[in-house]
Write a structure and sequence with these properties.
Order of helices and strands: HHHHHHHHHHHH
Number of domains: 1
Strand content: under 5%
Distance between the termini: 25 Å
Number of strands: 0
Shape: globular
Largest sheet: none
Helix content: over 70%
Structural class: mainly alpha
Number of helices: 12
Length: 255
C-alpha cells in the first residue's frame, strides 16, 4: 500500500466514521476497488486510523466531559455489551467477516432499516431531557445495538443511532450519544487489535500510519460538523438511500 492509497483510505475513514454508512465497510470496499491486498498491516491500518477520527470527537466534546461524571457512567454502561461480545467474537469477525460481500449486504439491510426508522421518528420529540439523564436500561440497550456493528458494513454509528431513537431520544441526541460512545469503544477496539495482531511495523508502515491518523482527524472534524446540520434538517433517510445504492452497485461490480 502506497501513500496515495493511504491518503484515500484515511479521508474515507474520517468522512464516514461518524456517519451511519460504515467506515470499515467503505475502507474494505475501497481496498478491493484499488486492489489493495488485505494483509495484516492493511487490516490493522484500517482500524488504527480510527484513533485519528476519535480524537476529533474527543476534542470537539471536551467541555461536555468536564461537566461531571454522570455522562461517564452512562457511556460505561453502554460500552459493557460491546466489550464482552468483542472479546468473545474478535477472532471470528476479523477472519471471516472482513470481505466485500458481507459489507455490501450489510449496507443494503442497514439502509432499509434507516429509511424505515427515519419515517417513524420525523419531528419526534425526545423523552429525555439530556444525555446525562438517559435511563441505565436504555444506555445498555444502545450498547447491545452497537454490538451489531461488529459485522462490517453495519456501521457503529447507524446501530447506536437506531438504538437511541427507538429508546426515546430525538435525532440530535441519538447522534451525539453515538459520537460520545465511539470514544471508549474505538479506543478499546484499536488498542485490542494492535495487541492481538502479530505485526512488526516497518519504518515505512509507521509513516503511513502517522499520515493516516492526521488525515482521518482533519476529515472527521469537518464531517461531524456537517453531519449534525444534515441530520437536523433532513434526518437519516438519505444515508439509507446511499447505503442501498452503494451496496447494490458493489455487488454488481464484483459479479
Amino acid at each position: 500500500m502506497g501513500i496515495l492509497e493511504t491518503i484515500i483510505l484515511s479521508i474515507i475513514e474520517g468522512l464516514t466514521e461518524f456517519l451511519p454508512i460504515s467506515s470499515t465497510g467503505h475502507m474494505i470496499l475501497a481496498s478491493a476497488a484499488m486492489n489493495i491486498h488485505e494483509n495484516e498491516f492493511v487490516k490493522t491500518f484500517e482500524i488504527a486510523i480510527q484513533l485519528g477520527a476519535i480524537m476529533a470527537i474527543a476534542l470537539m466534546y471536551i467541555k461536555r466531559f468536564l461537566q461531571g461524571i454522570e455522562i461517564y457512567i452512562k457511556l460505561t454502561v453502554a460500552f459493557i455489551p460491546t466489550a464482552v461480545v468483542g472479546l468473545l467474537a474478535y477472532k471470528i469477525i476479523k477472519e471471516y467477516l472482513f470481505n466485500p460481500v458481507v459489507v455490501s449486504v450489510s449496507l443494503i439491510i442497514g439502509g432499509i432499516i434507516l429509511i424505515l426508522i427515519d419515517n417513524k421518528i420525523s419531528n419526534k420529540e425526545s423523552k429525555t431531557l439530556s444525555l446525562e439523564k438517559i435511563p441505565y436500561k436504555n444506555a445498555f440497550f444502545i450498547g447491545l445495538m452497537q454490538c451489531l456493528s461488529m459485522i462490517p458494513g453495519t456501521s457503529r454509528a447507524a446501530a447506536t443511532i437506531i438504538g437511541g431513537v427507538v429508546n426515546g431520544l430525538d435525532k440530535k441526541q441519538a447522534t451525539e450519544f453515538s459520537f460520545l460512545l465511539a470514544i471508549p469503544t474505538m479506543f478499546a477496539a484499536t488498542g485490542y487489535d494492535l495487541l492481538k495482531t502479530p505485526v512488526s511495523f516497518s519504518s515505512n508502515e509507521i509513516i503511513l500510519l502517522a499520515i493516516g491518523l492526521v488525515i482521518a482527524f482533519i476529515s472527521a472534524w469537518f464531517a461531524v460538523k456537517i453531519f449534525l446540520k444534515v441530520v437536523e434538517l433532513y434526518g437519516f433517510k438519505h444515508f439509507g438511500y446511499y447505503r442501498i445504492i452503494l451496496g447494490i452497485a458493489f455487488l454488481i461490480f464484483m459479479y
